[in-house]
Design brief:
This protein is an alpha+beta fold. The protein is built from 2 helices and 4 strands.
């Protein structure tokens, strides 16, 4: 009680009380801006990951379906088969993929052929190439 015998009355909603309750509009705007920037970064990372997955899928397909199959076909061929004559051969195309091969005789030693198979393709990120080499020995036929 005060000196005059009246009870102290506290008035809610005074400027001091308003500053202590809740968030201000500025604080909410800053929080939403920070959250939005974070979500934008996550979306960018997701897009980059999807492009990387597409490139990996295309590279795996080029290696397994085209390079490896052509290498096995050439290794199973007779040493004197036309596809194993010295020089460049191909390209054999299948959709976006083009497979060619090069044969060098007496390399790395007499009686051997070095066969290099190269598969190329183009996608939105540019041109890509995958190569693999094997040695075919004349004594293994």
């Amino acid at each position: 009680m005060s000196e005059k015998g009246c009870a102290d009355v506290k008035i809610f909603g005074s400027p001091n009380d308003l500053n202590e309750k809740g968030f201000t509009l500025l604080e909410i705007l800053v929080a939403v801006t920070i959250f939005s920037l974070g979500m934008l970064a996550v979306a960018t990372m997701q897009t980059t990951a999807m492009r990387g997955n597409t490139l990996s899928r295309n590279m795996t397909e080029a290696i397994i379906q085209y390079n490896q199959n052509k290498l096995e076909q050439l290794l199973d061929s007779d040493y004197n088969h036309a596809d194993l004559n010295p020089g460049n051969h191909g390209p054999e195309t299948d959709g976006a993929y083009a497979t060619s091969w090069n044969v060098v005789t007496n390399s790395p030693y007499d009686g051997a052929k070095t066969v290099t198979v190269t598969t190329t393709w183009r996608d939105r990120s540019g041109a890509h190439t995958v190569s693999a080499s094997v040695i075919k020995d004349s004594s293994l036929n």
